[in-house]
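pasting input
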Amino acid sequence: MTSVDAAAPAPSQGKQPLILLVLKLRTFIALIAVFAFFVFAAPNFLSTANFVIMSKHVALNAFLAIGMTFVIITGGIDLSVGSIVGLCGMVAGWLILNGVDLGVGYTLYFNIFEIVFITLVVGILFGAINGLLITRLNVAPFIATLGTLYVARGLAMLSSDGATFPNLVGNPEYGSSGFYLLGAGSIFGIPISIWILIAVGCGAAYLAGRTPLGRHIYAVGGNERAAALSGVRVNRVKLFVYMFSGFCAAIVGLVISSQLVAAHPATGETFELNAIAAAVLGGTSMFGGRGRIGGTIVGAFVIGILSDGLVMMGVSSFWQTVIKGLVIIAAVVVDQAQQRLQARVALQQQAALGR
Amino acid sequence: MTALRNQTDQQQGHEIGLSVRGATKVYPGTLALENVDFDVRLGAVNVLVGENGAGKSTLMKVVAGVEQLTAGQILIGDDVVTFADTRAAARHGIGIVFQELNLFPNMTVMENIFIAREKTRGFVDIAADEQRQEAAALMQRLEHDISPDAVVGELRIGEQQIVEIAKALAQDARILIMDEPTSALSSAEVEILFRVIEDLKRRGVGIVYISHRLEELIRIGDYITVMRDGRITGARHMEGVDVNWIVRNMIGAASKDFAKTIDHDFGAEVFRAEDICLPRKSGGFIVDHVSLTLQAGEIVGIYGLMGAGRSEFFECIMAQYPHCSGTFHVDGKVMNEPDVAGRIARGLALIPEDRQAEGLVQMLAIRENMSLSSLKNFTRGFHLNLKRERESVMSFVRDLAIKIASPENPVSSLSGGNQQKVVIGKALMTNPKVLLMDEPSRGIDVGAKAEVFRTMRGLAAQGLGILFVTSDLEEVMSLSDRIIVMSNGRITGQFSQAEASEEQIVAASADGHVQRSHQQHDRGESRV
């Protein structure tokens, strides 16, 4: 068979059309647009105090969305993060208030670092359960994580019979005081939770771009069979992403209970949906194989600023919900347009080679 | 079976039911059909033959309305017709039995036969009884006692093919296209099918019959059309046609420019398979006690028809079937790593048959695809050195002469031949000792084929052992230092390049069925 040259005019090499650049940066542009809008429309929007509050709100969703992004890139979904947030908050609260009763008339209290560590382990453990269900027992990710959603929420409720663990100030004697710092403390005027977000965000972005594991995550999501035949240990990769998602959820559980200095078992309900929304807004494809950590974080900021700004403008929360939904739908529609355009540009470049 | 053959005087009277004129079909990067003229005569079997990728299936897809022509026209009588979809073609009385089974495994035989053409009362309520009766009648006509209510997924592959045929028969087609209808049928079932075809011919149905089994074609056909590389290379009456004539037209007088052997000596044995068995779910073996050896620098071609167990054998080597038995040796040492990564580390690399589904991650960049198997070469601790990765990828791109605009473009933007080279590059980047290539020339054009073959020769000269699977006779003859023929899961012949002849190879590729006729009904692909 003879080759057929595509008749399309070839753009100059390495230079992409402006429209494609705009589409690629659309989440960022949306962020600037939302920001600019509220600067004019909402009073006090530009105040430092408002920024601190807003960034704290955004951070919570951003943590979950980062974990969710990896899961979605592998072609899965993690519905259990909201419940893990609630459960981990309760675990931290329990350890601070009650310690662990060893059953011999002796109760073991942990210091604050041990408590944080144990809570994170609980989150990772739940992630591992998700991962094992999905890889070893072949449960569909949607169902497996739906199951753990209920289990984790139920356990959180059971831990206190549905009551709140109040006043988590801790006891200096056991070294468990200072829990509030995680949520309320700040370094150089920036809240600690934001510093943690920066650390986790940079770590995740590094993982995605500069490590073999990151590359494997994308490969598994893009074509699981080809990845397996190329020597990627698919099950390990999947196990990792769910454990990482659990880890992120545990961080959020700690931060929220620290901010409130209390742990409530219903904390984190529907958080998973916001996390998915942020990831999708940031350009993550629900079909797997595509997504960027940076995009997800910007997506979380768009959603966060939008809802806080609308509150400041006094828009009814019912309208907020409608607007949030419309923004997400618009994001996905634009995403599809970008994909088509990008494919066309790549084909044109290829055609420019004569073949 | 001379009775099946029509008399000459009868054949002259066959009316042309459909004709294709000047058909050209362009896919991105390749010309699948080039100015093809083809006639379907009613009341006769019109045989269409050619190698894989010659354009037979494309031509039939055009006639059946699955694909549309880039240029040229389809005529029924004197009217030009265009088929926007299969429904439009079906309205003109064209039915097709596809090469790949197009059945719904979750539905019953009856539901499959009448899919999208359900018999209804008042357009809503499905007339199940009527459908059941008709399905049962069709099964009777095909001399099978498959229940209309059986779930298709639970039938044997051969039975599924019968259902597929029944589905086409149910449309009362005036022109019936059968694309390799016998690939999963036993000889007894083939006889039944031939009786049905004979019956259809008497009713004036024009049949287009595509098959790779040449003897079968000569027996059943009235007219023959041979295709090569998207063109018609021979079209005539079946009278006086023999296998030699077909093969000559399929392959062509001027042989394709395959790389000639660079003379070099073989090294020590790099790979040995001993007694590899892969049991089939329904009993018997997909891979049946296969043993073979491969020396460094040697190219061994495995020839066989579809479903001979060749791909499954490769997948056994790459640890895809935990229940496969037997032992593999690499460099004289037993290989018992349980997963692909371990086996790649031992120096094996697989280039899978299905590039799209198994070879490439379409949405990733060319660079990311090529380095996927060898990332650890660029990693210190857990840090990936992107600069070194890129340099290494670019050097392979140059060596393999892959035409790319940028290594950052998605791999899906490349043509088939260049995609195949990316897959080969990925395998080579792992620095393998043994290269397993499953249909390395599938779906790429002649120029790219020649380049892939030249690359294979060059690699062998560098001391790589290459084991490749093909169903292309000419390819296996000209490229292999040694030829192994597989049939029905077994090795049925081994030839050195010097002693091999096309007749022997073709004969051996059917051997597995003849000698085990009592097991034939079990034949068929059941790839997991």
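fyi The first strand of chain A starts at residue 100 and ends at 101.
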